[in-house]
Amino acid sequence: MSDGGESAAPGTLEARGQPVHTRVAEIELFAAEAGKLRVRGSIIDLRKHGFIPTGGRLQTSGVIHQMGIEAVVDSTSRVIESLASSQPVVAFEASKMTDGESCRDIAGRLEGIVGATLDAAFPRTLSACFGGPLGCSHLLTLAQFIGSTVPRALAWEHEYLGRGHEERRPGESLFKRSILLDGLEIGGGPALDIVVQLNDVHSLPGAQVVTPLDRFLCQHEVRLLARVDVENLQIVSMRGDERERSAENLAQARWRSLEAGLAPLVNHSALRGLAHTVMKRYGDTFPATPLRDALLFIAPGIIQCLAVNAQRMVEAPRGSERPPAIQQLGGMPDSCYIWRAGGPGQRSRQLAPPAGGA
User: Fold this and answer.
1) Can you give the pLDDT of all 358 residues of the chain as single tens digits?
2) Which ranges in 48-169 belong to alpha helices (H)?
3) Over the range 157-167, which residues count as b (16 or more CB within 10 Å of their CB) and which as e?
4) CA–CA separation, 132 vs 332, rounded Å?
5) Helix 298-305 and helix 274-282: axis angle, to 10°?
6) CA quadruple 304, 38, 206, 291: dihedral positive or negative?
7) Which residue, 23, 69, 103, 125, is the most exposed by fewest CB within 10 angstroms?
8) SS3 of 186-201
């Protein structure tokens, strides 16, 4: 990646290690009737190897979480008019070992944000309705990004459609955001490389389009590389680049280094207080910047990557190594309904065998 200033293209991300986890969030906006938007979001966690005993079963590599949200939003007021969620793949299915509890038990609570406005205060509204032990941390993350993505897309829509372009047809896609996080384990666990890539693409109305490339209106990209010390869960280095380009400068747009601006996050905890610091330093604008949202993707993604430590406990010969601390295993107390104090997540952790145990 670039060391400073601008460059025509970024260097190699230079991440290294054993791939352990990928998290993908997608949010797409479609035109609907009478000035409405249909919003479709999804989040998927893909574990790359191994297995973990949890929730009364063996959670193997592959898709371990798959969640979705569909909503209708008024494009003028930004008020959520309807919302439905889905959870095709969850970590905790109802079973005897969970006393019949499941991650799906509280999904209906998310409908409590219907009527809320997607504005600067939305994160607080969402947290009060669905945060911590009240909800599912994965649906919460997805809803948070819907709350920041829709205003961002509408700002671009207002800016560019002011040029007199054709109105959009109902059902037509106008904007898509994808955020991808990859975690790679270095040296058998002492460190993680975390790569985050955000891609926003806005499309022209299709009425006068001849070829698919004609649809391209503008794009914003962010690329981040953070190295995390797993022992103390501290960010030891962070680099990044971003660029924004339109149809007019598609080939000429240059990447801008973010390294100086990211320096305050070096030596910061990778989990505790990271979201607060990101909001304080990078969240002072509305709509939110793509950089802020890319940074907010790091902590929940790291939690998923840390599941590899639980596998290490199972594999280790008895007494061969110090068991990981609870914060190195993910699933923090009260982080969601399943991991609430006294909930099935905490019970399954207490019933798990010690490192090297049968």
Assistant:
1) 444 566 545 556 678 899 999 999 999 999 998 889 999 999 999 999 888 777 667 788 899 999 999 999 999 999 999 999 999 999 888 888 888 999 999 989 999 999 999 999 999 999 999 999 999 999 999 999 999 999 999 998 888 776 545 678 899 999 999 999 999 999 877 899 999 999 999 998 887 777 888 889 899 999 999 999 988 999 999 999 999 998 888 888 999 999 999 999 999 999 999 999 999 999 989 999 999 999 999 999 998 998 877 766 666 666 555 555 444 445 677 788 888 888 887 776 655 544 333 2
2) 122-130, 137-161
3) beebbeeeeee
4) 10
5) 160
6) negative
7) 125
8) ECCCCEEEEEEEEEEE
Do 155 and 133 meet the contact criterion of CB atoms below 8 Å apart?
no
- Cα pseudo-dihedral 120, 121, 126, 132, rounded to 10: 100
Q: Give the separation between CA 350 and CA 57, rounded to whole angstroms.
A: 15
What is d(CA 101, CA 93) in angstroms, rounded to the nearest whole number?
A: 7
Cβ neighbours around 60 below 10 Å, total: 11
**CA dihedral (314, 340, 129, 279) positive or negative:** negative
- Give the three-state DSSP class for 75: coil
**Which residue, chain included where needed, has tokens 């979705």?**
68
- Dist CA 63 CA 84 (whole Å): 22
Rg (CA), the chain: 21
- Residues listed for the chain: 358
Pairwise CA distance, residues 233 & 190, whole Å: 10
Spatial distance between the Cα atoms of 139 and 156, rounded to a whole number of angstroms: 26
Ranges of beta strands (E only) in 284-347 are none
159 vs 214: CA distance, rounded Å: 18
Q: Which of 84, 98, 79 is nearest to 36 (CA)?
A: 79
